[in-house]
Design goal:
Blueprint: H1 8-22, H2 25-41, H3 45-100
Helix pairs in contact: 1-3, 2-3
């Protein structure tokens, strides 16, 4: 049987750092879009159309990456919370079982 050794505080640390980096995506995409727009303005119409096409295609890909990253962070957090809740439930069940055990009669009694 596999053994799980999840350290929730470590998972939260990784998720916090990942979320912090992912939070920078939007500003970086704005900078890329501004650069592409500037390049399109300074180019011929043929090049400008090509730049616009690339920008639109990359925007869809970037949205997918952002959505997937957010889903992964959320899923990992939910899984960790479920793991913690499972541990608490197992502990409560063990405690209830121990409390339900019959009290044996003392020896010789």
């Amino acid at each position: 049987m596999p053994r799980w050794d999840i350290q929730p505080s470590a998972v939260r640390g990784v998720l916090d750092r990942t979320g912090s980096v992912a939070g920078q995506f939007e500003e970086q995409m704005k900078a890329v879009n501004a650069a592409l727009a500037g390049a399109a303005v300074q180019s011929s119409s043929l090049v400008a159309n090509a730049i616009t096409g690339v920008a639109q295609a990359q925007t869809d890909s970037a949205r997918f990456i952002f959505t997937r990253t957010n889903a992964c962070i959320t899923g990992a957090a939910q899984a960790t919370n479920a793991y913690i809740e499972g541990d608490l439930e197992m502990a409560a069940n063990a405690q209830a079982a121990a409390n339900a055990a019959p009290v044996p009669a003392p020896p010789g009694g």
